[in-house]
Amino acid sequence: MSGASEAREVRVGAAGRAPSRRRRSPALVTGCVLVGFVVLVALVSLVWLPYAPDDTTGTRLAAPGGAHPLGTDKLGRDLLTQLMTGAWIALRAGLGATALGGVLGVCAGLAAGFATRWLDDTLSTLLDVLIAFPTLLLAMLMVAARSASLGSAVLAIGLAMTAVVARLTRVLVKRVLAQDYITAARTSGTSWPRIVTGHVLPNIWPTLVVNLALQFGLAVMAEASLSFLGLGAPPPNASWGRMLQEAQATVFTAPTGVIAPGVLLVMLVVGVNLVADGLRDTLDPTRRRTR
Amino acid sequence: MNVLDVQGLTIRTEEGRDLVSDVSFSIGAGSRLGLVGESGSGKSLTALAVMGLLPPGMTASGSIALTAHGAPPAEIVGATERALNGLRGRAATVVFQEPLTALDPLMRLGAQLAEPLRARHGRGLRGAALRRAVEEALDRVRLPEPGRIARAHPHEISGGQRQRVALAMALACEPALLIADEPTTALDVTVQSEVLALLDTLVADRDMALLFISHDLAVVSAVTDHVLVLKDGTAVESGSVADIVGRPVHPYTRDLVGSARHLESALERIVR
């Protein structure tokens, strides 16, 4: 995942490459396996499901095994089916919110980072207000203004994320711009667009990518929380959050209803965090050597 | 013909405080001027003003005329960013004090050096020709194994080597005037004299004008032929190195010469 620096290397000198770069971080490998499993489940759910998501013909609260590998819920729906569709919903929520928050946040952050005085002050104040605004309240407003759907939840989570990402980007840009190498580039007559693409973006992007990966995990959690509260995708779309909420009452009689979505949720979020950790080690050349 | 002509330069902060007031000096083609003074005397600000790179909120007044090779003198004070960008690099460029922060930590040195080379020789410079130009530029500043250094990141080479790379980047612009802002202060003494000697020959070979900024009168007198002494933003004394060192007039200059002598005599006492 070191595309930027590798591309540069190819341009200048393509011979011998530091061997340490080849070594993979164990966190990255573990994280990729965990995330990969969930992605696989989600992809399979698109082409094949054991039952239809709204098929209530099964025995209610059946124990795992036989025709229903993970059992059924209180309405007789197959849990494995719900878990699989839930994986796809969780990934869509995470990707959608991260894409929205990432694009808007980085753009706003770049603008604020380069701005001086009043524009910077205005943007910073706006971001602070947005960060202080509870995501849950924002989500409820979205649901009230639109309807309870995955789109509303993603929009709310993405907007809340925008503020966090923008504030981080702003600080990173300001820090890079204060560096001597920016002044050095300017003294040799390098134009602003070249400075942004050549120095600013490469220097802020490792931190940004790691942060976006963390934000992805938080977005998945946020979607599960919103669904738990009934603010996410409406039935029959099975979100892990709503599965947890529905299985709440029967947690002792049919524990798989709670355990299965819980385990997958933890796998995805922990996996994404490990990927973020591994990315940080891989993307930073000063860390690469010491590992 | 003068490469740099500074007349009545005053640098003022937003609050209206003058950090540099009414400083005038000029540097002829191929000649060298040392700017000496303690930290906070306005040396570096003067250099930044010459490049049109004052920090936001500071304004320069007076006149700064910079002349690129084969071009009429251009006024820096009040020039547009576009005009300034055309001058930077061609007319003048800067080598900074801290070589670690003056190099992009995430960029391979070869790629960083390629930037001024391509700015100078055109974007068409790429591939094997670019690699050769990069290695030649590194070779010119006496760096061993230019191929290896071109592929290294700044943290993988030593401080002295970094300053040589920074020097190579500045020279790649082939400017009429090289501004060296305390280029050896961050280096240890033996490396310092090597880099100074290198700077000396490279500037002489290219017939470049040099504005050398330092707090160290001994270092300045080793490299330049004229000296301007700054104190609290005003020029207190100027003249040839021999005059300033031999017959300092202003009390502050006398202090500077005295402290340089003091160090020297301390060394001699030990030798004896």
From TrEMBL, chain A:
It is a multi-pass membrane protein. Its main location: membrane. GO terms for cellular component: plasma membrane. Residues 87-276 form the ABC transmembrane type-1 domain. It comes from the Bacteria. The chain crosses the membrane at residues 27-51, 89-114, 126-144, 150-169, 208-231, 251-279. Keywords: Cell membrane, Membrane, Transmembrane, Transmembrane helix, Transport. It holds the Pfam family BPD_transp_1. It is found in: Cell membrane. GO terms for biological process: transmembrane transport. Belongs to the binding-protein-dependent transport system permease family. This is ABC transporter permease. It comes from Streptomyces corynorhini.
TrEMBL record, chain B:
Pfam families: ABC_tran. It is found in: Cell membrane. Its main location: membrane. It is a peripheral membrane protein. Residues 4-257 form the ABC transporter domain. The keyword Translocase applies. This is ABC transporter ATP-binding protein. InterPro entries: AAA+_ATPase, ABC_Ni/Peptide_Import, ABC_transporter-like_ATP-bd, ABC_transporter-like_CS, P-loop_NTPase. One of its GO terms (cellular component) is plasma membrane. PROSITE patterns: ABC_TRANSPORTER_1, ABC_TRANSPORTER_2. It comes from the Bacteria. PANTHER family: ATPASE AAA-TYPE CORE DOMAIN-CONTAINING PROTEIN, OLIGOPEPTIDE TRANSPORT ATP-BINDING PROTEIN APPD. GO terms for molecular function: ATP binding; ATP hydrolysis activity. Belongs to the ABC transporter superfamily. Keywords: ATP-binding, Cell inner membrane, Cell membrane, Membrane, Nucleotide-binding, Translocase, Transport. Transmembrane segments: none annotated.
